[in-house]
Amino acid sequence: MPPSTFKPRRFSHFDRLKYYIGLAAFGILTYLYFAPGPVLRVLNHQSISPNHRDAASNSTLGFQQILVLSMRPSWRTRGLLAAAGYTGLQVSIPKQATPTDELIDAFRKLGPENVKHPLRGEAFNWLAHLDMIKYINAQDYDTALILEDDVDWDINIKSQMALISDAVREFTYANADDDGPYGRKWDILWLGHCGEPTRLDTRRIEFSDPTVPPLKNYTGWASKYHDGLSDGKRVVQRAVNPVCSFGFAVTRRGAQKILKWAGKGENEAYDIRLMQGCKEKRLSCVVVNPEVMHHYVPPREFGHISNVAEGNGRASEAEEEEFERVMGNTANIANSTRCRALFDSTCMRN
Ligand SMILES: *[C@@H]1O[C@H](CO)[C@@H](O)[C@H](O)[C@H]1NC(C)=O
Ligand SMILES: *[C@@H]1O[C@H](CO)[C@@H](O)[C@H](O)[C@H]1NC(C)=O
Ligand SMILES: *[C@@H]1O[C@H](CO)[C@@H](O)[C@H](O)[C@H]1NC(C)=O
After folding, report:
1. Which of 30, 70, 213, 320 could hold 334 in an S-S bridge, CB 3.0 to 4.6 Å?
2. Dist. CA 47 → ligand 2 center (Å)
3. Within a domain: residue 256?
4. pLDDT band at residue 3, thresholds of 50, 70 and 90?
5. For 334, what's the count of Cα atoms within 13 Å in the CB-facing half-sphere?
6. Is 25 part of any domain?
7. Residue 134 and residue 304: Cα distance in Å, rounded?
8. Burial of 306 (0-12, 13-18, 19+ CB in 10 A)
9. How far, in Å, is the centroid of ligand 3 from the Cα of 144?
10. For residue range 245-274, what is the model confidence (pLDDT) as tens digits?
11. What is the span of the domain harbouring residue 78?
């Protein structure tokens, strides 16, 4: 082509425009890709000291104590102690006092007429939980994990908690000099619950955990709440709807706040009262989703009745001796420690 017919300037404005548009698009995409998203952030393990992770996998899972809420020895506590032995956890079961009928009745009536009030079994359970929090407060524990006595967890609980400690520290912007494996900038750390919504717009720290069951295998509320979850991942986020109190930790400050908030009744159950506190931001609640603890349920043919239902007078004393020898199931836990310890098996509900 002769140079005279070459008209380089003819399209130069258009070309330059395309160039700038391309450059801008590239810049925006690069920014979007690398910028720390305000909502979903992926855990940056590098920024965290391995000491916290090690402490979170110690025999009390990085809390000062693991305390079990239990009214009496039963299949629940026997299974729990077997599971604790299997995963090398140190748990203590403080002696619970039985509240009087008069106290239960009075507690049920607390608050104005137009709020919800607990039924008898729920009030009984609520008072037991409050006694536990008072005990934690009296002992002046830095942190404590409270377990209900039918709770279950995965045989990999220690490695799960190590990941969770990183994520909780990052989510709550724990100070570098805070030596708590989970920091201390929370009142309640909810580990075992019935399902917590993670939506696409939920602010959260996400991390890979190879022990998470496939999302399609979740049952109960947990199966409906996972728009913002992906397979093989867990998240740490703020709790807005954490029901069921299978396993949750409190800080010293959290115990004091719970005594004030939940000490006055005014809802249908203890866990619902805590959930209300989380929702209304009276309590600072951090939740792990999906849950790492869930309750074990004995085989259905034995007509299992929960402690709360027993308290409501709906109990039939099942033949514990018999059903303890037959495997039940645990929802949403891939490799149940109870079933591994007692039956050398997995028992995830499907
Ligand atoms: C586990 O770690 C926590 C936090 O550092 C600590 O308070 C607790 O005492 C440790 N547990 C044991 C059994 O040493
Ligand atoms: C999940 O469910 C499928 C059947 O839908 C089953 O084959 C699989 O074993 C389940 N996984 C776990 C971890 O239970
Ligand atoms: C459960 O744990 C056992 C023993 O470690 C292992 O062989 C098995 O693959 C695990 N199963 C699941 C579903 O994780």
Report:
1. 213
2. 35
3. yes
4. very low
5. 14
6. no
7. 30
8. middle
9. 29
10. 999 999 999 999 999 999 999 999 999 999
11. 40-297
At residue 30, does pLDDT exceed 80? no
Task: Measure the CA–CA gap between 320 and 50, rounded to whole angstroms.
Answer: 44
Let me know if residue 112 belongs to a domain.
yes
5 pLDDT tier (thresholds 50, 70, 90): very low
Q: Mean pLDDT check: name the lowest of 34-48, 196-210, 275-289.
A: 34-48
The burial of 350, by beta-carbon neighbours within 10 Å (0-12 exposed, 13-18 middle, 19 or more buried), is given as exposed
Ligand nearest to the CA of 184: 1
> Residue 245 falls within a domain, yes or no?
yes
Question: What's the CATH code of the domain at 273?
Answer: 3.90.550
Neighbours of 318 (CB within 10 A): 17
| Atom number of ligand 2 nearest to Cα 346 | 14
pLDDT, tens digit, 9 for 90 and up, residues 94-112: 999 999 999 999 999 999 9
For the CA of 214, the nearest ligand: 2
Kindly report the length of the chain. Answer: 350
Q: What is the pTM of this model?
A: 0.86
How many structural domains are present in the chain? Answer: 1
